[in-house]
Amino acid sequence: MGTETATLGGGCFWCTEAAMEELAGVTDVTSGYAGGDTADPSYRDVCSGTTGHAEVVQVEYDTAELAYEDVLEVFFTVHDPTTVDREGPDVGSQYRSIVLPHDDQQHERATAFVDELAAADAFDGSIVTEIEPLETFYPAAEKHQNYFEKNPDAAYCTVNVAPKVSKVREQFGARTE
Length: 177
Fold this sequence. Notes:
Helices cover 34% and strands 21% of the residues. It is of the alpha+beta class. The strands form 2 sheets. Strands 7-6-1-3-2-8 form a 6-stranded mixed beta sheet. Strands 4-5 form a two-stranded antiparallel ribbon. A hairpin with a 2-residue loop joins strand 4 and strand 5. Helix 1 (13-20) packs across helix 3 and helix 1 (13-20) packs parallel to helix 6 (155-171).
């Protein structure tokens, strides 16, 4: 079958990256920026809130082991898609909930997935996740890649990232590495 790539933003990319790396079938996760207008932004640029970009991850996965919907299921489990421009302690448009489909099929599948969650009243509030076609993905600097793996004892990681990783292990145990 091959590999596919999903691009998702659900708050700080360190959290989303670490959660996605737990899934068996994920072959690579890259933190970066997308959804804005500034070419080749830096972390500082994106944190200023003026670029229009969100912190996102690109998740490459083996389609023999995972479906796009599996990736979406984990994504919607590890962040709150009902808060506008916020995830946990992180506030600003760069932390918005966003799915950036790579093609029309992913767009249809993401829209259907969100519609199913909404119909099932899966969350206490309305889902505010944006679904916008991916135009350009800009990888973040190397120091942001595999951040949790490199800094597991950093305060932000112990308070914010580790609980999301634990949640993936608990809820998706059979599908984790």
